[in-house]
Amino acid sequence: ENLRNNFNIYRNQIGYVPQADIVHRDLRVEEVLRYTAKLRLPPDADIDAIIEKTLQDIEMVERRDVFVRNLSGGQLKRVSIGVELLVDPKLFFLDEPTSGLDPGLDKKMMQLLRKLANQGRTVILVTHATTNINLCDRLVFLGQGGNLCYFGNYEDAVKFFDLKTVKHNRIYPNLNMHF
Prior knowledge:
The protein is α/β, with parallel strands linked by helices. 35% of the residues lie in helices and 15% in strands. The protein has helices at residues 7-10, 29-40, 47-57, 73-85, 103-118, 154-160, and strands at 14-17, 91-95, 122-126, 139-142, 148-152, 164-165, 171-172.
């Protein structure tokens, strides 16, 4: 089916979180979610229950009254994810969700995305950070010009690229590998 011709049918089935967070920084976390819910959910939706579930899903219950401008990078990214989770999308796209996060927050973000996928969502993300890609079901590596170099699971990627696992679960390619 053509997505553009049927966009109204699918609009709440698809979530998208861009690399640059686009939430209003002068609102509190719960206010961001509430305003978004009022704009995107039907009038008869139980907004309070949906916001509470979303805060739990993104692990921000204790930060609900904090202004967005006072959040860490990882917390801000979780709020951006929460904005999309309000409508319970089944297909979720994220562009560089761990960009700019330190290694500990990178892992926590990837674990959150793994949890969301385990709840029945399809999560597709673009990343240059390979430290925690073992949490993904399938990997796609693109080479120069967007050419497909690999599609498959993590274990097979390690074999395919002759990757070496080293300390802290970081992987490094064989230096003789060329794309």
